[in-house]
Amino acid sequence: MHSVVVIALSLPLQVGVYESNRLIQSNELHEHASESLPLLFESLLQQYEISRLFYANGPGSFMAIKASYLFLKTLSIVNNIPLMATDAFYFNENQPIKALGKLCFVKMAHSIETKVFDEVPSSTFELPQELIVDDFNSDTLPHYGIAAVT
């Protein structure tokens, strides 16, 4: 049985395959989630028996989060594979995440807020070498971080 972790918050997307909670394959995708995830998963589902799906549910690119959630939720329902999530800060050592302009998402003790920076820090997302299932939860709805403009 294998687990797959998807970090689709910005380009490049990161997708890791885990066996016994150890990373055995990593994929870096340079196309948008809506284009690259179906192609990659077509291959992964032929190679591995996937028993769990995990993903970063935000904050990050609104469209990337939305596309990855819809794709993974559909895959979860159709193939009866549990889907779990955690926030994006888990994958970048809690560094600020660019939102819009000089606005960044920052993780506080019990919330995610936005903060203006003079210089926007750059952060990269990394797949963990070891998958700790207890760090994820069943609340998989996307966390976009910024409300819709009205």
- SS element count, helices: 2
Radius of gyration: 15 Å
Assign the structural class, choosing from mainly alpha, mainly beta, alpha/beta, alpha+beta, or little secondary structure. alpha/beta
Q: Specify the CATH class of one domain.
A: Alpha Beta
CATH superfamily of one domain: ATPase, nucleotide binding domain
Ends apart, CA distance between termini: 45 Å
Order of helices and strands: EEEHEHEEEE
Quick summary of this structure?
The chain has 150 residues and is of the alpha/beta class. It has helices spanning 33-47, 62-79, and strands at 2-7, 13-19, 22-29, 50-56, 83-86, 97-100, 103-107, 112-116.
Textual characterization of the structure:
This protein starts with a strand and ends in a 34-residue tail after the last strand. It has a domain at 2-88: Nucleotidyltransferase, domain 5 (2-Layer Sandwich). The strands form 2 sheets. The chain has a 5-stranded mixed beta sheet with strand order 3-2-1-4-5, covered by helices on one side. Strands 6-7-8 form a 3-stranded antiparallel beta sheet, with no helix packed on it. The chain has 150 residues and is an alpha/beta fold. Strand 6 and strand 7 (103-107) form a beta hairpin. It is built from 2 helices and 8 strands, in the order E-E-E-H-E-H-E-E-E-E.
